[in-house]
Structure formats: C-alpha cells, structure tokens
Amino acid sequence: MRQGRYPFIIGFLAIPVVLYAVFVIGPYLQAFQIALTEWNGYKAPEYVGLENFRELFQDEAFTAALRHHLWILITLPLATLVIALFFSFLLNVGGGAGKSGTMRGVKFSGFYKVVFFLPQVLAVAILGVLFQSVYRPTESGMINGLLAKVGIAPVQFLNDPKIALWSIIGVVVWQSVGFYVVLFSAGMSAIPKDVFEAAAIDGAGRFTLFFRVTLPLLWDTLQVGWIYLGIAAFDMFAIVQILSVDQGGPDNSTTVVALEIYRRVFRYSDLGYASAMGVVLFFMTLTFAVLTLRVTRRERIEF
User: Fold this and answer.
1) Which of 21, 28, 37, 229 is 20 to 30 Å apart from 302, CA to CA?
2) Cα–Cα distance, 235 to 281 (Å, whole number)
C-alpha cells in the first residue's frame, strides 16, 4: 500500500480533476478571452483589449447594479443570520432546563423547524409568483388588503424605486431563514449539553448563554453561512427577473449584475461586453469569499 499510495490517489483524482478542468476552468478561461473581444456570437470576434472594462464603469445600469449588490451584501446575510440564530437558539436552548436538568428548546420545536424550512423547498419561480400576489399594489394584494382595512393607502412595494429593492431582499430573507435555522440547529446540537447546563448552573441567563456560550461555539457554522449568503447576494438573478417591474425596474432600481449580463447576451447579442461583466462578478465573489475567511478566522474551540 505504501509503494502504490500515489498511483492509488492519482487514479481516484484523475477523472474528477479532468472533468473540473474541462467544465469549470475551461469556461472561465474562455470567458476571460471573450471579455477582451467584441463579439455577437455569429461573426468572428474582434479583439478590443480592455475597452469593454473601460465602458463598464461608464454604464449607469452596471454601476447601479454594483450599488445594489453592496446593499444586498450588507443586509441579506446580516438579517438572515440574526433571525436564524434567534429562532434556532429558541428551538434548541430557549426552553431552559427541563425536569431532568437538561437544556431543551421551546415546545413543539420540531414542528417549528419544519415550518421554517418549508419556504426553502419552494422554487424561485413559485416564490416570485407568490409574492407578486402578496405585494400587489391594489387592495387585492395580501398586504395592501390588510392595510386597506385599517385605513392605510396601498403601498407600491415593487413600483416605488425607493423600496422596490428592499421588498425583494425581504423575500430572499424570508426564504433563506429556514435553511439557516436548520443549519444552526445542527451546529447547536453538536455542542455538548453539559456546556449549557454548567453555564446555567453558574447563573447565566438566556442573553449571556447566547453571546458567551452559543455564539463562540457556533462561529465556524456562522462563518460558512455568511459566505454562502454573500455569494447568493452576488446572484439574485432569478428572483429579480421574476419579481421586479420590467426586469430590474423601475428605472434600474432593482437591477443586478447577473441580470445585466442576461440583457447584454439575449437582447443585444453583445457577448464580449457581457463576458466582461461576468469577469468582474467573478472577481468580486472570489474577493468577498477570501476576505471573509481571513477577517472571520479565529482559533477553533475544542470540546
């Protein structure tokens, strides 16, 4: 086994590495190449160097999309993780000590986990159609129908440029919370109950138990969740395309980079310019992931 160790490892890794190179690395390199050209997908590409990248930052729609990604990157992970941590803490530890002295969650916590997770199984198309009804700007909409009963004028959730983006972010938060409730619940269940019980015996309240015990021991899971949500914040294509007015409107108030790439390819057949947007999006996502891993890195706490 010692003599044949490396051939054994190479034999298992060769096919996955080749597939990854062909279907992942290859398309990345091709996208970088196309970004340096002017190409409509039919004629031979014309090399233009960095011209596409110079035009990008003079494009109002693209710069608006970058601003939207910044706001989404701040609000989506923060809101989702805070809400998910709160609910998962209640469902696993919030019930206090039981008769046997062990820590437990609130009553019916298993049922609540299923309810919280249900939005996660909905397809994005179904989610978009559902919230088109919820946000409908007339009294037939769910929210505006309730507001009308108390004498409040209808709110233009998706037609008002000031709140359209926040309305869409709210939908994504609503869908995402359940997954992270389950993820953090799994992380909390891996923490020895003796730790919580010892802290409770020492007089730690729920506030102290959460910030001094649960949060530090759950840091690795929290880090993973933040990266996943940050990467999701650089996408948002499907929900914006379905839910927004005029696909990114009104007045580009909800557009994102992925949607601008889609427009450039399928409306204007400008593959070189779209590839340049994709390259920028690739490096933004990669930079975010690397910085997050470095900034949030800390020593692992062993049980």
Assistant:
1) 229
2) 9
The set of residues, in sequence order, having a beta carbon less than 8 Å from that of 277 and lying 6+ positions away, is: 56, 62, 257, 260, 261, 264
Tell me what pLDDT residue 101 has. Answer: 47
Structural contact between residues 141 and 118, judged by C-beta atoms closer than 8 angstroms: no
One-character DSSP codes across 136-178: -SSTTSHHHHHHHHTTPPPP-TTT-TTTHHHHHHHHHHHHHHH
Contact 173, 76 (CB under 8 A): yes
Beta strands 96-97 and 46-47: pairing type? unpaired
User: Which parts of the chain are beta strand (E)?
Assistant: 37-38, 46-47, 96-97, 103-104
Task: For strands 103-104 and 96-97, give the pairing.
Answer: antiparallel
pLDDT along the chain (303 residues), means of 10: 68 86 90 89 85 89 92 92 87 60 64 82 87 86 86 87 92 91 82 71 70 77 87 89 86 91 89 92 89 74 53
CA 1 distance to own-chain centroid: 44
Phi-psi region of 220 (alpha: psi -120 to 50; beta: other; left: phi over 0): alpha
What is the separation of C-alpha 286 from the centre of its chain, rounded to a whole number of angstroms? Answer: 14
| List of long-range contacts for 210-213, beta carbons under 8 Å, 24+ apart | 210/85, 210/89, 210/93
Residue 165: what residue type?
L
Closest listed residue to residue 231, CA positions, set 117, 73, 124, 123? 73
Helices 60-92/271-295 angle, 10° precision: 40
Cα separation, 201 vs 98, whole angstroms: 13
